[in-house]
Request: fold
Amino acid sequence: MMNLPRSFPAGSLFHPLSENDGGWRARGGFHLIGEKSFFGGRPGRAILLAGLLALGPRAAAQPVPAVQDALVADALADRAGTEFLTRLCDDFGGRLTGSVNNRGALERTVTELKALGITARLEPFTMPGWVRGDDEAEMLAPVKRKLRFTSLSYTQPHERFEAEVVDIHDGREADFAGLNAAGKIGLLAANTTVPRGQYETAAVQHGLRGILFIDRVAGGQLLARTGSFNGIPLRIPVFGITQEEGLWMGRLLKRGVVVKVSMLTRSHCTPVETANLVVTFPGRTADTIVVGAHFDSWDLGQGAMDNGLGTAQLYALAKVLQAHARENLRTIELVWFNGEEEGLWGSRFHAPAMKGRPVAAMLNLDMVGFPLSVNSLGYDELVPVLERFDASLGARKLKLGVSNINWFGSDHTSFQLEGIPSVTLGGRIEPDVVRYYHDFADTVEKVDPRLIPESTATIAALVYRLANEPGLATTRRTAAETAVLFRKYDLETRMKGIGLWPFPAVASEPKKP
Reply:
C-alpha cells in the first residue's frame, strides 16, 4: 500500500481513497462467523459436492454453490497461509524490490507453490530501483541530537551539509511567500495534501537544500514511502522524521529559535532487475480474471501487513483453487507484483503486457483485513455481479455489502489505466495494528491468526464467482471513458501531481458571446 491513513477511529474499517493524500473512509466494526454456517445443516450438500467432483471440473457451467462452499470451508480450516507468511517474514525480513531479501523470498514462494503441485513462473522486468544507505541526520542547534528518520526512496547521494530549518507548512507556493528559504532545510507538515512532485519542485525553486517530512503517526514511528512515483531521482534529499521531533522543531521555529540540522545521504538510485510471480489456472475460455497482490514491502520492518497479507492470501487462494476449482469458465491468473511501493512498477509492466487478451476483471488484494465490503470502483456494471456474490455468502454476507467508490494508488490502478474493470475488498485491521504499516513494527506477530483464513474464504468465493459468472464482458473502457471515471471521483489533480495521468486535457467550452 502506497500510503497511510491519517487517523484511526476506533471500530472503523479503513478504505483507501487515494495514494497521495492518504484519505481513507471509516466504517463500522466486524463480526466473524464460523464455517458451519456455510452448510447450515442442509441435507444432501455433501453428497452433491461429491457428485460434482466426480464429474470433473467441466461439470460447472456457472457458479455451483457446493464448489463455492468447499472452497470456503477449506480456506477457513487451513492455516497454511498464516504459516507461509510467518516463514516468509522471519526468514527474509522486509522485501524491498531489488534486494537480496526480496529475491530470496520470491524464490521461496515458487518452491512452496511447487510443493503444492502448482506451477509458478517468474516474469522478469527492469525498473528504476533504489538502495538504502547509511544516511545521517542530526539536530545541531539548539539541542545536539541524532534524529530518528528514514530517507524517502529515490533520494540520491549528497555530501553532508548544515543548514537552518524553516517551516514550509504544506509546501504550497503560498507557504513560501515572504520566506527566506534559500540554502535552508524545509520542515514539511505531516498532513500535507500537496503531491510529492509538487512540493519538491517548489522547494527547489525557492532554493531549499533538503526537506524534513513530519510523520503522521505519533509514538516515534517512521513512514517509509516513495519519493518519486516515476523513479526520477530527487533533486534534494527528503527525509521522513518522527512526529515528535518534527513538532518539537515547529514549536521552536514559531518562537523564533534558530534550528540547525545536518543531512548526509548515502542511499542511491540504480536500475534493478526483478520479477513478478505468475500462476495460471487455465479456464474453458481465454477470458481471464486477474487476482493480484504486491509482493514487495518496505525494508524497515517485515512487511507483514503491507503486503504480506496479500502475498499470503494469494498463496492460500492458489492452494484451495488447486484442491477444488482448478478449471473454471474463465482463466484465473494470480500475480504477485513487485515494485508496488516505489511506484506500481510490477503492475505497470504486467497490465500493458495483457493487451489483446480478454480480461473480464482484476481483483486487487492490498492490505485486506477481515472482509466487510467489496468495491466495484465506479464500474456500475459490476455492482449487480457483486451483489449476487454477496448474497451467495449466506450467513457470511458482507456487513457493509457492495460499495462503488473509485480510488487510486495500488496495483488495480495500472489495470484501470488499461481500461480493465477492477475490484477491491474493504476489510478491517485493528487500529493499533494497522498504524505500524511501513514502519519498523510491521511484523508478523501482529497479524491475527484468524485473518488469513477468514479473508481467504471470502476472496476464494469472490474469485470463483467472477470466474464462473455468466455474461461477464471483456470489453475494455476507452481512454476517454477511463478519464471520465477518474474525474468523477475527483482524482485527476492528485494523479497529475505524481505523474500518473496519461490522458489529454479536456478542451474548455467556448465562452458564449
Summary: Confidence is low (pLDDT under 50) at residues 4-60. Residues 195 and 497 are 5 Å apart (CA to CA).
